């Protein structure tokens, strides 16, 4: 309860939520600004609109499935948000969040259905929150899923006024007998690599450490990149969901791997059964220049780079060898640069890289 001082008593007014740093009116304005963008993500199965306590999705749509399996994923963006905050550019970080969520679902063959987000900030600046949600909504449209709800929490004293973090969760569905994964992988399969749009949303703690230690600034123009460091590091994560679902419809895909934290080899190994191994040939592609620059500037060993960064590969599909060329063609027609990067052999359930890159890493 808030106590009020008597007039002219010399006492100050009692405590309030606003005095504690939480601006309810700003939160309401943020919701108003983001409403249009959320509506753009609407699917026919969504029930109700923005502002309810829970997002509703009509599950009767699943009656057409023989045996639907629900898939779920939760994630955040990590320290890439520090780059967005430093540059005061917030309308692309949503692609990073959605990419981390829906592309974890799609590796099992699941179609993303809906997503919820969570934004924690030190101070609600309505225009900034709306910009973040705009990016999330645009990425949801790109992925074909609905943004059915979310939460914006103001945490004064825990986060500074300019700080925020974003996280979310998504749900999808796949037929049980169409589930992709280790059970389908066989020796003789081929590795189809899909190019990343850049660093995506992993390895930014290492990158920021290297930049700080080497005295480089986000506003520095780097000739090898053709733009500033900040512009390079804020390049949005590529969202592969629709492309991977299309690939799965058109060729015999056995498994997929989303290349995030841990790097290429470790993430591919997650979808392998016992008794096989994957050999990935580095000579089949050239890593993005930002990867090799981080290595050069920070004297980072190649093995450490490969454990931390995606090295230019954002997604991998393991396909029947007879379908490998067709898979590359399907992805090319959808604007995704892809190539045959390796093969599946009899082995011990591991993945490893061989050979040298088109441009040598440090």
Automatic annotation (TrEMBL):
One of its GO terms (molecular function) is ATP binding. It catalyses: 2-formamido-N(1)-(5-O-phospho-beta-D-ribosyl)acetamidine + ATP = 5-amino-1-(5-phospho-beta-D-ribosyl)imidazole + ADP + phosphate + H(+). Residues 186-349 form the PurM-like C-terminal domain. InterPro entries: PurM-like_C_dom, PurM-like_C_sf, PurM-like_N, PurM-like_N_sf, PurM_cligase. Keywords: ATP-binding, Cytoplasm, Ligase, Nucleotide-binding, Purine biosynthesis. It is found in: Cytoplasm. GO terms for biological process: 'de novo' IMP biosynthetic process; adenine biosynthetic process. It is an enzyme of class 6 (ligase). Residues 68-174 form the PurM-like N-terminal domain. GO terms for cellular component: cytosol. Its main location: cytoplasm. The keyword ATP-binding applies. Pathway: Purine metabolism; IMP biosynthesis via de novo pathway; 5-amino-1-(5-phospho-D-ribosyl)imidazole from N(2)-formyl-N(1)-(5-phospho-D-ribosyl)glycinamide: step 2/2. Its EC number is 6.3.3.1. Pfam families: AIRS, AIRS_C. Belongs to the AIR synthase family. NCBIfam families: purM. This is Phosphoribosylformylglycinamidine cyclo-ligase. The lineage of its organism: Bacteria, Bacillati, Actinomycetota, Actinomycetes, Propionibacteriales.
């Amino acid at each position: 309860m808030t106590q009020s001082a008597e007039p002219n008593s010399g006492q100050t007014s009692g405590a309030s939520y606003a005095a504690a740093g939480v601006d309810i009116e700003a939160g309401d304005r943020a919701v108003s600004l983001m409403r249009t963008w959320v509506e753009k993500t609407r699917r026919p199965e969504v029930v109700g609109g923005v502002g309810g306590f829970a997002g509703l999705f009509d599950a009767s749509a699943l009656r057409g499935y023989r045996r639907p399996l629900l898939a779920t994923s939760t994630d955040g963006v990590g320290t890439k948000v520090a780059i967005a905050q430093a540059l005061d550019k917030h309308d692309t970080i949503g692609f990073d969040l959605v990419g981390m969520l829906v592309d974890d679902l799609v590796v099992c063959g699941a179609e993303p259905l809906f997503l919820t987000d969570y934004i924690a900030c030190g101070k609600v600046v309505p225009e900034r929150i709306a910009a973040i949600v705009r990016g999330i909504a645009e990425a949801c449209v790109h992925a074909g899923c609905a943004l059915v709800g979310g939460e914006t929490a103001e945490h004064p004293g825990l986060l500074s006024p300019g700080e925020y973090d974003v996280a979310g969760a998504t749900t999808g569905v796949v037929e049980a007998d169409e589930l992709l994964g280790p059970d389908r992988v066989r020796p003789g399969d081929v590795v189809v690599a899909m190019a990343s749009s850049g660093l995506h949303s992993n390895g930014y703690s290492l990158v920021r450490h290297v930049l700080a230690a080497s005295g480089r600034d986000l506003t520095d123009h780097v000739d090898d990149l053709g733009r500033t460091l900040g512009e390079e590091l804020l390049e949005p994560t590529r969202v592969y969901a629709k492309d991977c679902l299309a690939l799965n419809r058109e060729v015999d895909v056995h498994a997929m791997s989303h290349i995030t934290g841990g790097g290429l080899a470790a993430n591919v190994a997650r979808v392998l059964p016992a008794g096989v191994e994957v050999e990935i040939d580095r000579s089949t592609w050239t890593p993005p220049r930002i990867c090799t620059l981080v290595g050069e500037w920070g004297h980072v060993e190649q093995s450490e780079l490969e454990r931390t960064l995606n090295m230019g590969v954002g997604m991998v599909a393991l396909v029947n060898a007879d379908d490998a060329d067709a898979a590359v063609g399907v992805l090319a027609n959808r604007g995704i640069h892809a190539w045959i990067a390796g093969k599946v052999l009899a082995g011990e359930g591991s993945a490893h890289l061989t050979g040298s890159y088109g441009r040598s890493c440090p």
